[in-house]
């Protein structure tokens, strides 16, 4: 055997030994990996907890999709053993082969049907006929469909109201007739009887009930009620409007349990229709558990009329949206002057803080309660919000917008005058403030004289208004200071802090303005003193010692 052959033989035996060692190490690593995986938290979780994780992952996924993943044997066995995990039905033609598998694995568990029509240009097909035979087994129905699909669905679906606890029906915009959903009749001897209806969540978006009376019988255990677009003015017809007595009957049936109420473009007809369910159009309904009230109305009068029938707790979060705002009528909706004692409006008497934000075509009013750890006025959002009012308008000339700003501020005082408002914050494009005179400021602020301690006026730097420079910042400050200091009796006797924030401050001009009004300020705030802050510069008017 020559040297070359001997080298090849030794090399071959070495490779065989290395391969054997490698296989041994790999086998040992596999054993260690298996032992490690067996002790991993995901593999040692109880089946009940693992199932809860699966259900949570299912709940937060996109509602138009089905996701299937490769999992370990234990996870697969837990998933296949759970009927609840397979109760989620997606009515897409793309998942046709899965529908029968899903239904079979769901067993006797209540089904969940969810589908949202895409808002982008993508078109996703849907087979309504495939899921109609199973609607009577659904505990949750949450779908948005175009007009013809929704019409097919509500005309052919059957519901078991002792199982169905969540019903959301939304129809994309269409000029077709509004689909009608069938609510069951629950009458015995002419009177409604308590039933075991399971419905807790009801949302109808441009879908009307066959009978408001029948709907009321199903709403007795509701937690959430949302009615949207049932009197849409774009149709140039009020044939779909709700009668006030019928709407009040529905609200009264759910009043003891309702926690969220949303009414969007659902202004009731003001007819002389006879009372329904023992209620008259003059009824005021109490909602002891209501936490959120949202109303979007076309006009201020309609919002005020609706509010006059509702009595809500002081802890209720309120969100109002006026779609056609007229600034001279704001007080009508929030605090009807003819009936200021109505229980429905008592929530206006509890707010400690009011913020008003002016934009070029809309206004937001926010009111709430100061938090226990409330800090100075420049930290504007450190409070608990209870009321939000959005006023839609239209952009006009600067003069018209200045008039709108002044008129809206006029109306805020009477609205909140009976409450303990301690802080008032105004955020506005500076050019609008140039239209407010000394007398205007007095009229705006006088209703807050009992409790107001902090006033903040802030220029909104985000809104670009042409001719911004025509508004003189020193002149605006001077008018406000004159209004505060020259009134007799004092305009705001408890005011302790006046803060003004400009986007482009000029310290020299502001300092000159303060000094020119210093003597009057000293006399006006002699008993309490006053801290004035303009951006980062502060002046203190000391209290006179007697």
From TrEMBL:
Organism domain of life: Eukaryota
Gene3D superfamilies: 1.20.1280.50
Domain F-box per the UniProt entry, residue ranges: 43-89
InterPro entries given in the database record: F-box_dom
Name of protein: F-box domain-containing protein
Organism classification: Eukaryota, Fungi, Dikarya, Basidiomycota, Agaricomycotina
